[in-house]
Amino acid sequence: MFETVVVGADQSATAAEAVRQAIELVKLTGGSLHIVSAYKPQQFTASGGEQQQLDSGDLAESVLADHASRARAAGIEARTYARSGDAAEAICDVAEEIGADLIVVGNKGMIGVRRVLGSVPNSVAHHAPCSVLIADTTS
What we know:
The strands form two sheets. This protein has a five-stranded parallel beta sheet, with helices on both faces. The protein is an alpha/beta fold. It has helices spanning 13-29, 57-73, 87-98, 113-117, 120-127, and strands at 4-8, 32-39, 42-45, 51-54, 78-84, 102-106, 131-135. A hairpin with a 5-residue loop joins strand 3 (42-45) and strand 4 (51-54).
């Protein structure tokens, strides 16, 4: 059964639905939940022309805290992981590091040109070290 579940999440409503479904799975199995959010540092130019980096990791941490709070409200403790870089790669890396049995991702980006050019669920499905559930989150 799926004892160790990883779910990818950002601030979108579809990610919240993927997390909700992952929580329900973990409640059924009595397993553990691991929530991953990836971010890319943002560059901007300050008024003096000086390049600066905005740490968007703070936003990822805030998103993760919100999702973890929802898990706790459902009676599930969740570990969280904020990772810099590509979302699909971060999700797969965490799954491999912890020996996950299942990755849950939403189906956002699975239609149209993004499906062909590469979406997070598509990339996860092709590179995951374990089973993948692509949850219907756009209905």
